[in-house]
Amino acid sequence: RKQLQVDMCLFAICSALGQNFIFYTITGPGPLAVTTITTTRKFFTILVSVFLFPGNSLNDKQWFSVGVVFLGLLIELHDKYSKSRKRTTAPSKKTD
């Protein structure tokens, strides 16, 4: 009974911290960053589960879907990197 109370308190604390991180991510970088973080986390959770536990296998269609998600994340990363690089290398306008 005592262990259950400790586990429930730890779960509540972790949940509250997680909600704070989500809130600060939405109000800081924005909702797109939250969706990217969430998709990336779920993507790697699936891969870790498949590789660590052989009973969790994926069929060909599921592997294809994993590839599509990975490709989407790579494209998004490339777009963000390209846009930030263009901003830093753009010539500054001089006003006289």
Q: Could you please describe the fold and organization of this structure?
A:
The longest helix is centred in the C-terminal third of the chain and has 30 residues, at 60-89. The model has no long low-confidence stretch (mean pLDDT 87). By secondary structure, the protein is mainly alpha-helical. The protein has helices spanning 2-27, 31-52, 60-89.
Features:
single chain, 96 residues, mainly alpha
The number of helical runs is 3
Q: How large is the share of residues in beta strands? A: under 5%
Question: What's the end-to-end separation, in Å?
Answer: 76 Å
- Number of β-strand runs: 0
**SSE pattern:** HHH
Q: Which helices and strands appear, and what pairs or packs with what?
A:
Blueprint: H1 2-27, H2 31-52, H3 60-89
Helix pairs in contact: 1-2, 2-3
